[in-house]
Write a structure and sequence with these properties.
Two copies of one chain form a homodimer. Chain A is built from twelve helices and eleven strands. Chain A has about 375 residues and is α/β, with parallel strands linked by helices. Chain A is globular and about 60 Å long. The first copy, chain A, has two domains: about 120 residues, Enolase-like, domain 1, CATH 3.30.390; about 250 residues, Enolase-like C-terminal domain (TIM Barrel), CATH 3.20.20. In chain A, helix 2 packs antiparallel against helix 3. In chain A, the strands form two sheets. In chain A, strands 4, 5, 6, 7, 8, 9, 10 and 11 form an eight-stranded mixed beta sheet that branches. In chain A, strands 1-2-3 form a three-stranded antiparallel beta sheet. Chain A is about 35% helix and about 15% strand. At the A-B interface, helix 1, helix 3 and helix 9 of A face helix 1, helix 3 and helix 9 of B.
Chain lengths: ~375, ~375
């Protein structure tokens, strides 16, 4: 068996929203297909992948370096020992040949996107849902029930507190019990007013997390911490620059509640630095590394190994990105849950059509691969690329 | 005045060499031109830039995001207050619009390459060598004399100790008094033999630095440190993964001599983390951040500001990359020197034709801009792109 083609198309996932750092008016994603010559259930096996929102599609890098390396590698060198399936780690090594260490951005997205498609193909060839394949490989029992929370509360032109409250209410109506909103894109007084409006709206029906998207310097992060600690928040996310570990460590002095960060750290080395230098607390804080932006699941497993070395449970991970890939990792390897954007970045994000959110938990269907075939709007654009 | 065009071409800088991490058989660079409508000395002013070796050309990202943002920005917003020249920081802000924090790789190269061209154009429009423009802006006196060392000693097929010695001798013959060779791509015993061969060859005529290119884990880095500290080396470079600050800090316990690192840290946040967490010693160690890979000179000035906050002198910086851009920064802002690859990556690296290395020092000629017009083989390929 072999990989016969690798395709990429860059698609808009633009929306009029903004967070404290960027607007999404020109946001794109790369949709990729890894086409094999294997047939299952009368159909050629094609693995699909895409990157999470926020870091743009990677058509250039995929075409310049990573797809050619996969296609030019000796076919056998990409397979497992018995030669009957792809070996994702060997595919990963082929893609990363002649890449220097350090500099983990952009290429981490290109490789993460292709890695998703490779794992999708691998699980389809094995005839298993990816989460079951993963659990088997790690000698664990899969748990198809995964915690999910609703990420939204973006800023956009003309959005007032009533609109924000209605948005949050709609997430509750759809079964979520934890919701998230953006902060740091307005004055602190305005953000407090927005937070209080949402807390009033959700009452005891749900909990609220807030996300500053790395906007604050140390003084502002501390000022917000002092204000936010008066509210019963689910977490205070990405206060400062994602690489400012000293800021993160200093914040713990001012904020006793849970904090979350990591969505903009794209390698196991960067993740390890957060654990070593960021003062994060393994009994309450959350880690949001997103494999689709971070060299994929092969690398994510190295990140999980680094967590183990540092004494962190894998259940402290709730990845960024809202994609089915991380749902599979959560169900297969016991992560704490996954992000979800109920109204954004469609058709890429979200769940298979049959899945319902109940009490902020979804149950994974038993679909071979990552499960894209169960989401009709998504598999339609995927098949347009490669089938 | 305005920017009328931004051009990019990806060119091979392939060579049969390898370091401990990668081979350079498919290495490329992006050559870019920022074309203005300003005329100086009867010629349209075009700024040129290229990226350093090791991280590949960035045609995809430049075309997808960074060149369009420059060309779509309001022309006035890219100029200084008097409107008679570009403002590199405003150009930088336009390029980085809607880019999230963190993830400093690849795009840092794309932006660094364009930033080089923007500074070249800015200094040409001002009618000054870039190093004098920079010194003026910082209220310093420029020193056109810059320390340079010869980087080589790569591994390549069939290269024996005699060839290595002859290579090093040739650098001495060309005026260098510090030479550098690769380690970590062979066994420790073999590397010791290679080092001793070179030390015998250069005797008291020169000093030797060694470079592991981030290859070693902690145990190997320590084992090498114990062996290397017996030699009078100029420095021990990039022992471990560039982001493994804890490894770097641990090494100081075993290696009292000078160490050097930083060429694979591509933002001021990453550089600051090295200073905060890497245990580097401001009285003897060297910092090798390379602006061409790291969002350019606008960002490099933020890195220098972080050095000041941490108590480091700018003369502890000897950048990676061997390009005239860093020569200008060294001469203008008092860095400790610059890398040079006498036999590699031509025509991009090296000096203007009139420049000679004497006692490992070069003297900057008084050419407007970065000085590419003084290097005939380089300006020829540059003008083919845009003039």
């Amino acid at each position: 068996m072999r990989i016969v083609d690798v395709r990429e198309i860059t698609q808009p996932i633009a929306s009029p929203i903004r967070n404290a750092y960027i607007d999404f008016s020109k946001m794109t994603t790369s949709l990729v297909a890894v086409v094999t010559d294997v047939v299952r259930d009368g159909r050629r096996v094609v693995g699909y992948g895409f990157n999470s929102n926020g870091r743009y599609g990677q058509g250039g890098l995929i075409r310049e370096r990573f797809a050619p390396r996969l296609l030019e590698a000796e076919a056998k060198g990409l397979l497992n020992d018995t030669g009957d399936n792809l070996d994702p780690d060997r595919c990963w090594a082929a893609m990363m040949k002649n890449e220097k260490p350090g500099g983990h951005g952009e290429r981490s997205v290109a490789v993460g996107t292709l890695d998703m498609a490779i794992w999708d193909a691998t699980a389809k060839i094995a005839g298993k849902p990816l989460f079951r394949l993963l659990a088997d490989r790690h000698g664990r029992e899969a748990d198809p029930r995964v915690f999910v929370y609703a990420a939204g509360g973006y800023y956009y032109p003309g959005k007032d507190d009533d609109a924000l409250r209605a948005e949050m209410r709609s997430y509750l109506d759809r079964g979520y019990r934890v919701v998230k909103m953006k902060i740091g894109g307005a004055s602190q007084a305005e953000d407090r007013r927005r937070i209080e409006a949402v807390l009033t709206e959700i009452g005891s029906d749900a909990e609220l997390a807030v996300d500053a998207n790395g906007r604050f310097d140390l003084e502002t992060a501390i000022a917000y911490a002092k204000a936010l600690r008066e509210y019963p928040l689910f977490w205070y996310e990405e206060a400062g620059d994602p690489l400012d570990y000293a800021l993160q460590a200093a914040l713990a002095e001012f904020y006793p509640g849970p904090m979350a960060t990591g969505e903009n750290l794209f390698s196991h080395q960067d993740a390890r630095n957060l654990l070593r230098h960021g003062g994060m607390r393994p009994d309450r804080d959350w880690l949001q590394f997103d494999c689709a932006l971070s060299y994929g699941l092969c690398e994510y497993q190295r990140t999980l190994a680094a967590l183990k070395v540092s004494g962190w449970g894998w259940d402290r991970c709730i990845p960024h990105g809202g994609h089915q890939m991380s749902l599979n990792i959560a169900a297969g390897l016991g992560l704490g849950g996954n992000e979800s954007y109920p109204d954004l970045f469609q058709p890429y994000g979200g769940f298979p059509d049959s899945v319902r959110v109940e009490d902020s938990v979804i149950t994974m269907p038993e679909l071979p691969g990552i499960g894209f075939e169960g989401k009709s709007d998504l598999i339609k654009v995927m098949r347009e690329l490669a089938e």
